[in-house]
Every structure is written in structure tokens, then in C-alpha cells.
């Protein structure tokens, strides 16, 4: 029996939200207690003892609950068998590890289930804020159980857009930097969640984005009523052989479309 024949998206989402909260318990135990930190190879950034402990817990908990699903995580060596699975867990144990190390409260746990290349359930949990974003395909998106929607902004001028400063340099844009206000939070998953709930009008990252950073957040945006695509306006597809996508632009449909139209 195929995975999609036996488990509903709602059941999968319940599994993810419970696991996200369990991850938060581990993160809070390590938070501001100087967990051991290592630098990854190839300038891939830091990893902490908390990242690794959460990864082990999630892999066991989620894998035991859904043994037929594939596994893709930032902190687990990749294995090609995930490419043969209909549904795949796509997990970032801690998105925003640098913020976690600094004692900032904007890091998150990003958990998604992808079915045949598209996210069908996703949870983004900020344990220090105790804030849970969740979505399942066709069922809308929520923050702490309440429905969320994008900001509704219809023009680019004056929009508030989340992203790092290099994304807004003139060379990336036709006609120079767009007339928007740049804002920043460290977690890509949190940026997507903030765009989904309308706290900001859009988010952008022009660099190749790892799937585990964005799978859950992209579903949040789409289920809330916004749009999330690659920097070239293509659909986001997940569980790729190389688990990256060509940047992300997400937000209200009008602002998101205007940003993509302006990209050089």
C-alpha cells in the first residue's frame, strides 16, 4: 500500500506539530547554556549539540510513526532511497542556528512532508516564543490554531520585504533596487511564516535555498493565500536529487509578482 493511500494530510500534520513541540523542549533545554558548537565543512555554517540531538529525536519519532516515508534533513547524511518514496520528511532541526547560538528567540524548527515533489503538511515552531505555524494541503494555514492570511498589499512601492541586504543590491534588479523597505530575521522558515501571516508583505532570497529551510514555510504561504515561487517565477519542487531550489520569492500575489518582474 502506498503511503498516500493510508494516511491523511491532517494526520500527517498532527504528527509534525507534536514532533515540533518535542523539538522545542530539547531546544529550550540547551538555549543560553553554551551548547557545544562545530563548524560544518565547505562553509556550510555552524551546528550545535542541540541540532544533532533534535535531529536524532525527530528521525526516530517520525520514522517510527511513518516507516514508509523518506527522510531529508540538514543534519543527516543524504541517502538516495528518499528519491523512491512517495512521501518524504523534509526537516531542519534548527533553522537559524546562528540566532540560537547568540541567544536570540527567532530560530525555529521547520518540519514538512512532501508528496511527489510538493509539500502537503508543514509546521514551523518557534520554541522560545511558543508560536506554532501549521498548514496542510487544501486546509489553510494557522498560527496557534487561528487562520492566517497575507497582508493584502497590492502595490510594490512601500512594501516591507524580508531578506538580507545583499538581495537588495542594484545589480539584481532591472532599473535598480525596488522601492521597498528591507527587513530581516535570521530563520528562512520564520520569514516565510511572517509573510504568510501578513506581518510583512513578502520575503526574498536570491541564493539557492536548501529544501529543509523552505518546504514547510512555502506551504504556509500558499495555504494562507499567497504565492511562493523560485526567483524565476517557477513552481517550487522538492525532494530533488540535489536538495536545493533556485531562490525563493514569496508573499502577497501582487507584491510577489512585482518583485519577480523586477528581478534582472
TrEMBL record:
The keyword Heme appears for this protein: no
Keywords: Hydrolase, Magnesium, Metal-binding
Cytoplasm in keyword set: no
PROSITE patterns according to UniProt: IMP_1 (PS00629), IMP_2 (PS00630)
Domain of life of the native organism: Bacteria
Family named by the database record: Belongs to the inositol monophosphatase superfamily.
Protein name: 3'(2'),5'-bisphosphate nucleotidase CysQ
